[in-house]
Amino acid sequence: MAGHNLKEESYKDKILTEDELWSVFCAMFSSRARHDTSYKFGFFKSILDSLYNVDARLMLTFEQLFDKFTEIYWNLILKYHLKQKAVTKNGKGSVIERILWEAVARGEIVPDISFEAVPDEMKRIICGKVRMKCKENVVGALFRDSGDLMYSFSKKAEYIQLNPQIYTFMTKHKKILEKLNYFEWAKYLEKVNEDNSTKNLLNHLDTLTLRNDLSIYRRILFEEFEEHTCFYCGRELQHGEVHVDHFIPWSFIKDDNLWNLVLSCPQCNLKKSDRLTSDTYVEALVTRNRNIAEKQPDRMSPDYRDDKLRMVYYWAKYNGYNEIWIPGKRGYTIEKI
Ligand SMILES: [Zn+2]
Q1: Mean pLDDT over all residues of the chain?
Q2: Residue 183, CA atoms < 13 Å, CB-side half-sphere
Q3: Residues with CB under 5 A from ligand 1 (ion)
Q4: Residue 295: Cβ-neighbour burial (10 angstroms; 0-12, 13-18, 19+)
Q5: Contact by Cβ (8 Å): 144, 7
Q6: Cα 179 to Cα 205: distance, rounded to the nearest angstrom
Q7: How far is the CA of 231 from the centre of ligand 1 (A)?
Q8: Spans of all domains in the chain
Q9: What spacing in Å lies between the alpha carbon of 91 and ligand 1's midpoint?
């Protein structure tokens, strides 16, 4: 793969027009971009899923990115049994397949266990192995495919720093870029896998990092911060009926962040579903988050800022989340924007 052996590079610092920005991504996904494995799709998804975890300098550590990357591949390989490269004559699959299946063979993990259920220590070891091996192949290759424009990186210091123009473009067109990535990724996986394992492939790709168990956040918010009323309708929450809601829908953010999670009654959670709610609640959440940051700063991720929440909300609207769900005294209303 072109660029895979690069060690440290800086993005070309030049002003890009909207057309040029589109062409960066079109070139990245064109048939001319070579793929020995599916890594570039997985790494690009890891970046897209981490867009709202960047720090003020738009940096993401390899640890952040490859933890996501491992989770993505965990599901693709162990859950859906999808090969990530065409098997060569000597029967070798991709490095990440070998790392995961070897851990299974050694009895360190069981293949049916979900990623979230793996003990932290084991997760750390496996993510570390994946990072050490896969960073060599993918970071420079995606950089080169983007025409040396997407980010600066250092394999030694283990970070990428996004080009601000690319970052803005990606937040603005997140959903479209995500779909483009899934489409090309699915095409690639269909090519290297037998027909039957690629059933429902596009849906699988979209839910690779969906967590089912949000109970840890329920415990933090309910017990540590004593949030005992529904964030939306204000009703008192009964034990056993406390839902954790992604304020900005998970399908947009693709991540679980305390700053975006609220407790709600089951009705509000289910009715709101995959929608946004009104600006008033954004400000209520800003206040709630300030309260958490004041009481226990280490509970709040260091890259959280009030403006970030407002910005993500704005970008979600821009990306097609155009139904605003508003709870009221008698039921709720939905406004189209
Ligand atoms: Zn409610």
Answers
A1: 91
A2: 11
A3: 230, 232-233, 265, 268
A4: exposed
A5: no
A6: 10
A7: 7
A8: 8-206, 215-336
A9: 55
